[in-house]
């Protein structure tokens, strides 16, 4: 007999609490296999295809494209097994409305498990559990509640009168995400006046955005109106020409992380110009010898790992709660990559064990994945030091913000011909500006200066690296 199993949005790792549905990969009535990707979601870190741990027929989907769901919210239901008359589950009318009704009775999952391990979904039998499904609730803020199956068409954008659960005047507001609170606060929206479309009335980011789109701003504080007019008058721009862009997805995650870095880390920056002529000649000689081409970024990364071996204080982080400096023996090197979706920092694992060829290949692989939006959360976290090559933007110098919770970042400007005194004579040389931004809690200026000077020496005389190879 067919069993209808509910697949919930799993914990995608690294403390992520919500995800936005970007694209459904299956329709109601489709047959799916175990571990088949069923939906593409966007988290604050990356685009992720979510595989389903069950095989069977999709009987319902929860949430239209563009809907934001919290971790643990239902994604879809799958009919597993066969019906009483021997047909595959969901065949015929069972894949439509009747299949959705069958979801009212949750049964014990089949013994065959998924090969992929999602947080909350193991590879063995799940514990038996029965749950009752609440009766259908009316639309909230013009959209159906998240636990309700939706049809293939998107929900209507016409706002309806909220009739669901609202927060009591003196009780807690049902919001989990700090991003949702910040979005509402920035737009002067009173969350107590909204009714959430998530489970148990949880207010999602989509609820706030829908209220803003619908022009539901009559509850904004008077201070917003009082300050908006002077600001517009002072800038000479009317309010009609102002566009508000929600800080969401990667842009929101970057904003939060950089703000936290500036708030928590007492950073300082030092910089130095270096003659990179010999480094460029060494690279040209390597590439002329045949084999895979070596990138400048790979050579700089190799120099970084050698410098961190001499100055391990900078390969660390600060545990503020324990008031301890945590030093890492392994170097997991992050590098800044600009993509159409925003700035991301992929991480090269165990960079200290890699040679220039291996580093070149890994940089190329992660950069391509970043451009395609296929980086996983694991590939974007866990770095211990970051290399930022902002020279690709045609600039010489910068004071980069440390990638929290790391303790330092090396910035590299463009390499350009400049007048330079070489061996006592004025000559045109390939010059680069290097900058190091560091957490002053982990070391003093002497350590930071020593690190940067060693990097510059290796750039000017690559043979210095031979001592550590």
Question: Which helices and strands appear, and what pairs or packs with what?
Answer:
Elements lengths: L2 E6 L9 E7 L6 E2 L4 E6 L4 E5 L4 E6 L6 E3 L3 E7 L16 H6 L75 H9 L18 H9 L8 H14 L13 H16 L2 E9 L1 H12 L7 H15 L5 E4 L4 E4 L5 E3 L1 E3 L2 E3 L2 E2 L7 H17 L12 E4 L19 E5 L3 E7 L2 E15 L5 H16 L9
Descriptive notes:
The protein is built from 9 helices and 19 strands. The chain is an alpha+beta fold and 469 residues long. The strands form 5 sheets. Strands 9, 12, 15, 16, 17, 18 and 19 form a 7-stranded mixed sheet that branches. Helix 7 (296-310) crosses helix 8 and helix 7 (296-310) packs across helix 9.
Condensed summary:
The chain has 469 residues and is an alpha+beta fold. Helices cover 24% and strands 22% of the residues. Residues 99-110, 145-155 have a biased composition (Basic and acidic residues).
- Counting DSSP E segments of at least 2 residues, the number of strands comes to 19
Major β-sheet profile: 7 strands, mixed
Q: What class, by secondary structure content?
A: alpha+beta
Helix content class: 10-25%
Number of alpha- plus pi-helical segments: 9
The whole-angstrom Rg is 27 Å
Region (Disordered): 83-174
Organism: Streptomyces griseoincarnatus
Pfam family, one: 2-oxoacid_dh
Family: Belongs to the 2-oxoacid dehydrogenase family.
């Amino acid at each position: 007999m067919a069993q209808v199993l509910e697949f919930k949005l799993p914990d995608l790792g690294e403390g992520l609490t919500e995800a936005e549905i970007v694209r459904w990969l299956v329709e109601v009535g489709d047959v799916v296999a175990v571990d088949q990707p069923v939906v593409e979601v966007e988290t604050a870190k990356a685009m992720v295809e979510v595989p389903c741990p069950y095989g069977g027929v999709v009987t319902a989907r929860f949430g239209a494209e563009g809907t934001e769901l919290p971790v643990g919210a239902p994604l879809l239901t799958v009919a597993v097994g066969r019906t009483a008359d021997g047909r595959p589950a969901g065949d015929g009318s069972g894949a439509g409305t009747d299949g959705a009704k069958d979801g009212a009775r949750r049964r014990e999952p089949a013994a065959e498990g998924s090969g992929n391990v999602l947080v909350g979904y193991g590879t063995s039998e799940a514990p038996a559990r029965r749950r009752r499904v609440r009766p259908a609730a009316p639309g909230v803020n013009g959209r159906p509640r998240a636990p309700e199956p939706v049809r293939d068409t998107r929900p209507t954008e016409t706002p309806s009168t909220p009739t669901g659960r609202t927060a009591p005047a003196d009780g807690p507001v049902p919001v989990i995400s700090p991003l949702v609170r910040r979005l509402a606060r920035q737009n002067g929206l009173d969350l107590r006046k909204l009714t959430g479309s998530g489970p148990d009335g949880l207010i999602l980011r989509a609820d706030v955005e829908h209220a803003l789109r619908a022009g539901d701003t009559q509850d904004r504080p008077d201070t917003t109106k009082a300050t908006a007019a002077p600001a517009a008058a002072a800038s000479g721009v009317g309010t009609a020409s102002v566009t508000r862009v929600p800080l969401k997805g990667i842009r929101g995650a970057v904003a939060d992380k950089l703000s936290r870095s500036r708030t928590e880390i007492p950073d300082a920056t030092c910089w130095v110009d270096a003659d990179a002529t010999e480094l460029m000649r060494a690279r040209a000689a390597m590439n002329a010898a045949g084999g895979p081409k070596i990138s400048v970024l790979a050579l700089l990364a190799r120099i970084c790992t050698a410098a961190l071996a001499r100055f391990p204080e900078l390969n660390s982080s600060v545990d503020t709660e324990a008031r301890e400096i945590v030093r890492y023996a392994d170097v997991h090197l992050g590098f800044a990559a600009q993509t159409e979706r925003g700035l991301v920092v992929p991480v090269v694992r165990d960079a200290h064990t890699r040679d220039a060829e291996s580093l070149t290949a890994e940089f190329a692989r992660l950069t391509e994945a970043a451009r395609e939006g296929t980086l996983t959360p694991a590939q974007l976290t866990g770095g211990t030091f970051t290399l930022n090559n902002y020279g690709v933007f045609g600039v010489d110098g910068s004071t980069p913000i440390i990638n929290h919770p790391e303790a330092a970042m090396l910035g590299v400007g463009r390499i350009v011909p400049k007048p330079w005194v070489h061996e006592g004579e004025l000559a045109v040389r390939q010059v680069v500006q290097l900058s190091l931004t560091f957490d002053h809690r982990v070391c003093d200026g002497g350590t930071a200066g020593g690190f940067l000077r060693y990097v510059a020496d290796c750039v000017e005389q690559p043979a210095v690296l031979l001592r550590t190879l």
